[in-house]
Specification:
alpha/beta; Nucleotidyltransferase, domain 5; 2 domains; five-stranded mixed sheet; 5 helices; 25% strand
Amino acid sequence: MKTIAYLGMDVHKDTFNLCALDGTTGEILGETRCASDVKLVKKFIEKIASNHKGEIQVKAGYEAGCLGYSLHDLLEKQGIDCDILAPTTMYSSSKNKVVKNDRLDAKMIALNLANNTYKPVYVPDEEDICVKEYIRMMKDFKTSLKKIKQQVMK
């Protein structure tokens, strides 16, 4: 039987806090704090899989924040299914609001993944990124054209 492990990640520029939760029993499979490197996340997942009997599937997630889509893209390239959670849609207990630390945040993200009590952030594909860059380029050209016209008129 294939078990789903939910990996909550509280991510910062320099460090990641990871918390893996068993999808069926709700027990914590492992917690750790590591440097902000996708290889270390993959190593943590492999360690969890080796300790767990049977086949394991991992669903990872982190709160939308300073890292944007870069971590999501790196995890997807490593073959790890990942969601970016919108912070305003996540369930948060009153205890977590009083006592706030990275370890509890990672656990709360894992619980939200397991219970599906969040809305994922839309991750743009390659075409969306190209359109966005094209619109920015056109805006820059219009701004520079306006400045040049103003200089000529002076």
